[in-house]
């Protein structure tokens, strides 16, 4: 009788887990679809020139009237913007990816490490291909306060920062047991991504729609990567259970 009850309880728990998993997969799929749709919509508007007025208005809002070389805010804010934008640059992101991949590998999460690196490399190649396809010029409306070398659409910083930080936050959160820790990780990654994107506009090196498209593209790649990890190489968190101690002989 007891065995029958335990079996029924196990089946019920398995069914609840399957339902939760199906819901998560559905939500992840919808998130990827929505991000891709948003990216394509912005790209279409940009190529048709429909965003020029809005882009210009937002870009000018970050500069002092009559002194377009000077952004709004105190001097320390300008320095902070350069520091923040560096967090989405190639050097910092490469260091983060290498360190994270090595740590995942050492923790025997090797499939996840491989998928993380693949998502970053694939996302970078995709962003560069789109830059070449669209060929949008950098803003000339205001002086640039940072060095730039490539086309403007989409923003590489805004695309790569969610791929790195969202994917990494999702992988680390999978090993956390408390909801507060998971929320903190996701919120920190979100704050970083938003700050990096806004800094690109503040420094005058990207149109706002470049940043918006970068966020959409990066989020799509990040969610797709986490979805692939969940399906192929899920992380099984330790339960913390302690094995019973065998009594000593003669005890």
Provide a descriptive summary of the structure in words.
Strand 1 and strand 2 (67-71) form a beta hairpin. It is globular, with a radius of gyration of 23 Å. Helix 1 runs antiparallel to helix 8 (208-232) and helix 3 (75-86) packs across helix 7. Residues 238-251 have low confidence and may be disordered. The chain contains 8 helices and 2 strands. The chain has a two-stranded antiparallel sheet. The protein is an all-alpha fold.
Tell me the layout of helices and strands.
Blueprint: H1 2-47, H2 52-61, E1 63-64, E2 67-71, H3 75-86, H4 90-106, H5 110-134, H6 156-173, H7 179-202, H8 208-232
Antiparallel strand pairs: 1-2
Helix pairs in contact: 1-8, 3-7, 4-5, 4-6, 5-6, 5-8, 6-7, 6-8, 7-8
Give descriptors for this structure.
251 residues, mainly alpha, two-stranded antiparallel ribbon, 2 strands, 71% helix, globular, disordered C terminus
Give the overall shape: globular
Strand content: under 5%
What is the radius of gyration?
Answer: 23 Å
Q: Give the number of helices.
A: 8
The helix content is over 70%
Termini distance?
Answer: 34 Å
- Number of separate structural domains: 1
Unreliable stretches: 238-251
Strand line-up in the sheet with most strands? 1-2
| Main sheet specs | 2 strands, antiparallel
Q: Which structural class do the helices and strands define?
A: mainly alpha
Strand and helix order: HHEEHHHHHH
Integer average pLDDT: 82
Tally of strands:
2
